[in-house]
């Protein structure tokens, strides 16, 4: 079956039901089903909500078994089953053309007189083709399925419109939208001052759904995570400014506890930016600057390799970095065990990662001593901002926990924020 799928003879789709589905005629699926769904004729006549009952869908495809067809499209993440006023309907986010709903994110909300705000902005690095606009309907399908499946209480609700989603959970609210001419994706949350930790986990829950969809649809996609200014969010600025990863990691490296967007804006605490100022969360967090280098992503290691592998006329390349890291005696071994096709920079980092003291702060120091500001900037833009370690039940500190969970190889990357 796998071989037939690889050569394009069939389409094999795993489902949550007891039986998986096999499409024997891929052209029928791609042309007659998906092609018709996204055709101009259907887009111009379909209801703007993008919701269809099973009977409505049967009229669109009279020659198909509507139950199996909807199951197939749901498995392909083109739609999701939902309850609309007591009736089962299927929501197709790619057909949702409702205009932006007004009144869902007002500044003068009586429920939140002293509201707490937070948020992140996800965007592709400069020079990378933006894929977010094409993946947003899939994100909306997952938000409908995952959030309501895990939060199905009476105080939970979800609204969706063209390029926007709002999710309510008790007194907390979240907004997921495409902004800046569909070039960035923003996740904003707000709640009461008394629920800082809950609001942090709320933001993480929604951000994880978005990140999982992007990683599943585009494996290896590189995204920059900027942190939106809580002050600007609370003031309901139309285009809130955000702190780049470089801003936040530079603040950590300088051992400061606050940073500011510019001279005209007030300083904001690093704890408020990273984890909504929740003291109990701060006890379990290790700042990105103090993380072991094994927490660096594959994208960052590739970037460093592309910068430091080519020979430098002044010798400021991987070889001098190895000397600065105290690996002079390992250079002959590296030449013997690593073929020319393998990155020397990544090999050096793999050897250095065996030491528990090999953290991102130390790497930045060595790169600055080497005079490679381009590599320093790459680390500051692409290194994780922090990592949450579980609290030690025996009372051990977070440093001991980090050493226990740190792999001694740069090939193993732990998910960090």
TrEMBL record:
A cellular component annotation (GO) from this entry: nucleus
Gene Ontology MF annotations: ATP binding; protein serine/threonine kinase activity
SUPFAM superfamilies: DEATH domain (SSF47986)
Pfam families linked: COR-B, Death
Coiled coil: none
Record's compositionally biased regions (Polar residues): 407-417
Region span, Disordered: 391-417
Family annotation (Gene3D superfamilies): Death Domain, Fas
Protein's name according to its UniProt entry: Death domain-containing protein
Lineage, highest ranks first: Eukaryota, Metazoa, Spiralia, Lophotrochozoa, Annelida
